[in-house]
Amino acid sequence: MLGKLQPDTIRNIVILVATIVANSIASNFIWWLLGSVRSRVRTIARVAAAFLAILNLGLAMVCLFRMLRLGPDWFYILMLLVALIFAYRIGGATRGQYN
Q1: pTM
Q2: Rounded Cα distance, 87 and 57, in Å
Q3: Distance CA 16, CA 2 (A)
Q4: Which of 73, 85, 92, 96 has the smallest count of CB within 10 Å of its CB?
Q5: In which element (H, E) is residue 73 found?
Q6: Where does residue 96 fall: left (phi above 0), alpha (psi -120 to 50 degrees), or beta otherwise?
Q7: How far is it, in rounded angstroms, from Cα 49 to Cα 45?
Q8: What is the pLDDT of residues 2-34, one digit of tens each?
Q9: What are the distances in angstroms from CA 44 to CA 7, 39, 59, 79?
């Protein structure tokens, strides 16, 4: 049986889950806006997608630099993967590939 989780581990799990939920909601909202008939709304959605992709790439860089400085940790490896996955998912919206 597993031992009691440390408060630091619980905090990291909450941060990871919150990042995934926030990215999922934001990316689904952006993809929903891209389906709009108005070209102005699609332009705003593309700008928001580019901004969110840049934020996710920034998060990936922070995780990478943190791992290079302190060594690999499960939290930073998972945050790096989540950031890169969502940056790729949102990056399709900025290129106009909606399928």
Answers
A1: 0.84
A2: 6
A3: 20
A4: 96
A5: none
A6: left
A7: 6
A8: 678 788 889 999 999 999 999 999 988 988 888
A9: 40, 9, 23, 27
